[in-house]
Structure formats: structure tokens, C-alpha cells
Write a structure and sequence with these properties.
Layout lengths: L2 H13 L8 H5 L4 H5 L10 H19 L23 H24 L2 H5 L9 H25 L10
Helix pairs in contact: 1-5, 1-7, 4-5, 4-7
Organism: Lysinibacillus halotolerans
Pfam families: DinB_2
Protein name: DinB family protein
Length: 164
């Protein structure tokens, strides 16, 4: 199996293809606005929506850098600020999800159509390649998808029987 095929499989697993963990589209499918905002009473965890904003931040930043559009990339003072929510409305919750899905698919298109040399070229403004960054982002996504599932379970919103 070549590296592109492996990465495309990992990338799809994070969004819409069932594998060892549920894909984010499926995980978020029935998450309500209220569930997206919910946090445990001690407030020690981020909400589902905050986690999706965090994932979106890093994917969008990387997409802009790869496209050479660094002026349009999202900015953050630190990692904590990447969890910041837009105005808390149902419309914005839906927009956040759709934007994440869109950005994820755009990165997938780049991966799928990149020549071997492009996969290994340095990303503008960084010291790593597309291959390394997408590998890291896929692992990062899987980690946070697990947190989102856990938050859903804590709320009783996770179905007892699932296909995965």
C-alpha cells in the first residue's frame, strides 16, 4: 500500500468511513444544539462544539498554508483560544459542522490529486510536508472524536447499540 492510499484511508476514517472508531459525520449526526454546548458540571472538559471549533481551526489553518493563502488562515493567541465558539446559535452550530466537513474534504482532494513530489514538499511557513501534517491531523482528529463520543455518552445521547 502506498502512502497516499494509507493517508486517504485515515483521512476518510476521520470524517465519513467507519473504521476502528466512528467517523465524525456519524458522531455529530444527531447531536443537538444543547448537547453541542453541554459540559460536565465541573467544567473541566470542552464542549462538543468547542472541540469541533478546535479541529476546524487546525484543518483550516493548514489548508490555507498549503494553498499559500497565509493571510486568510485563522489566528489564535494560543491553543486554548482555538476552542472558542462563535455566537451560540443553532445556525452557527450547523455552520461550524458544515465548514469542518468542507475543509476536511478540501484537504482530502489535495491529498488525492497531489503528485508524489507535492506530498513531500515543505508546507509554506512550516518545516514539514503534506504527508506528515495530514498524518498528524488524522491522529489529532481521532483523539478528539473519542472525546466527543465520551461527552455524548456522558449526556446519555450515545445509542446503546451502534453499528460500530
Amino acid at each position: 500500500m502506498d502512502v497516499r492510499t494509507l493517508l486517504l484511508q485515515q483521512w476518510a476514517s476521520c470524517l465519513d468511513k467507519e473504521d476502528w472508531f466512528p467517523p465524525l459525520e456519524k458522531v455529530l449526526e444527531n447531536v443537538t444544539f444543547e448537547q453541542a454546548l453541554w459540559k460536565p458540571a465541573d467544567g473541566a472538559m470542552n464542549s462538543i462544539w468547542e472541540l469541533v471549533c478546535h479541529l476546524l481551526f487546525y484543518e483550516k489553518r493548514y489548508l490555507m498554508r498549503f494553498l499559500g493563502e497565509t493571510a486568510n488562515e485563522p489566528k489564535a493567541e494560543n491553543n486554548e483560544s482555538t476552542f472558542q465558539l462563535p455566537t451560540e446559535t443553532l445556525e452557527n452550530w450547523e455552520e461550524t459542522k458544515q465548514e469542518f466537513f468542507y475543509v476536511h474534504r478540501e484537504l482530502e482532494k489535495i491529498l488525492a490529486t497531489s503528485e508524489h513530489e507535492d506530498l513531500y514538499r515543505q508546507v509554506p511557513g512550516e518545516d514539514y510536508s503534506l504527508v506528515l501534517e495530514l498524518k498528524s491531523l488524522a491522529m489529532h482528529n481521532a483523539y478528539h472524536i473519542g472525546q466527543i463520543v465520551f461527552l455524548s455518552k456522558m449526556q446519555g445521547a450515545w445509542a446503546r447499540k451502534r453499528s460500530f
